[in-house]
């Protein structure tokens, strides 16, 4: 989020980047703002934006920011440790600000002011994003369950395929083997499989 406060770490990182604040040519670009990954990231960005909006924007913008901030601060639908959920929440808030801006630019101030009432738990866009998050989480748990089957401690529980060669014997018969390898196979296994017959 672009309006989050810059701290000392951000200043250090800016020094490491290729950004030169004395070069005003086109090849000098600012890096993208980091993605919000927690409630505090979103709230911090909204608070910074509010400070800016108090002096530079009309009261409708400040009211929109206040409603967004109040909603995010008290919202309990996303766990504090869920970085992907907060990324989706930042996307939703950004979408509401975009909707406000587009209505404001089209000179429909009344409809733009109504956007601040859309910060609600029953907003269709928010519910759709939360469903998307739940589906994504369901996919993760199914994926993890699939890998639990391959746990090495459970390998003995799997059924083996029937074979004409005993499992305790090597299943191949190479043409040339060094004596060291033959000795190892004889010690570790009960010898090599029978020599294949050419038919």
Mean pLDDT: 73
Q: Compute the gyration radius: what is it?
A: 31 Å
**Stretches where pLDDT falls below 50 for ≥5 residues?**
141-152
The H-and-E topology, N to C, reads as HHHHHHH
What is the global morphology?
elongated
How many distinct helices?
7
Give the biggest sheet.
none
Instruction: Report the strand count.
Output: 0
Percent of sequence in beta strands: under 5%
Question: Portion of residues in helices?
Answer: 40-55%
Q: Which secondary-structure class do the elements indicate?
A: mainly alpha
Give the termini separation: 72 Å
Region (Disordered): 143-168
Fold and architecture overview:
With 199 residues, this protein is an all-alpha fold. It is built from 7 helices and no strands. Helix 2 runs antiparallel to helix 3 and helix 4 packs antiparallel against helix 6. The longest helix is centred in the last third of the chain and has 25 residues. The radius of gyration is 31 Å and the shape is elongated. 15% of the residues are buried. About 6% of the residues have low confidence.
Would you spell out the secondary-structure blueprint of this structure?
Elements: H1 8-16, H2 39-56, H3 59-74, H4 83-105, H5 109-114, H6 124-148, H7 179-188
Helix pairs in contact: 2-3, 4-6
Region (Disordered): 143-168
Write a concise keyword list for the protein shown above.
mainly alpha, 199 residues, elongated, 0% strand
What's this model, at a glance?
The chain is mostly helical and 199 residues long. It is built from 7 helices and no strands.
């Amino acid at each position: 989020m672009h309006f989050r406060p810059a701290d000392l770490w951000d200043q250090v990182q800016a020094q490491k980047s290729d950004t030169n604040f004395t070069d005003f040519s086109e090849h000098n670009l600012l890096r993208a703002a980091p993605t919000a990954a927690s409630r505090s990231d979103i709230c911090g960005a909204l608070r910074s934006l509010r400070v800016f909006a108090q002096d530079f924007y009309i009261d409708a913008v400040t009211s929109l920011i206040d409603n967004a901030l109040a909603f995010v601060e008290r919202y309990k639908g996303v766990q504090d440790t869920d970085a992907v959920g907060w990324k989706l929440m930042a996307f939703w808030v950004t979408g509401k600000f975009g909707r406000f801006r587009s209505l404001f630019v089209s000179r429909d101030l009344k409809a733009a002011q109504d956007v601040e009432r859309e910060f609600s738990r029953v907003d269709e866009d928010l519910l759709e994003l939360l469903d998307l998050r739940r589906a994504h989480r369901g996919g993760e748990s199914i994926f993890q369950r699939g890998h639990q089957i391959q746990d090495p401690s459970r390998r003995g529980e799997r059924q083996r395929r029937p074979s004409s060669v005993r499992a305790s014997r090597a299943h191949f018969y190479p043409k040339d083997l060094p004596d060291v390898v033959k000795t190892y196979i004889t010690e570790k296994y009960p010898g090599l499989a029978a020599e294949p017959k050419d038919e």
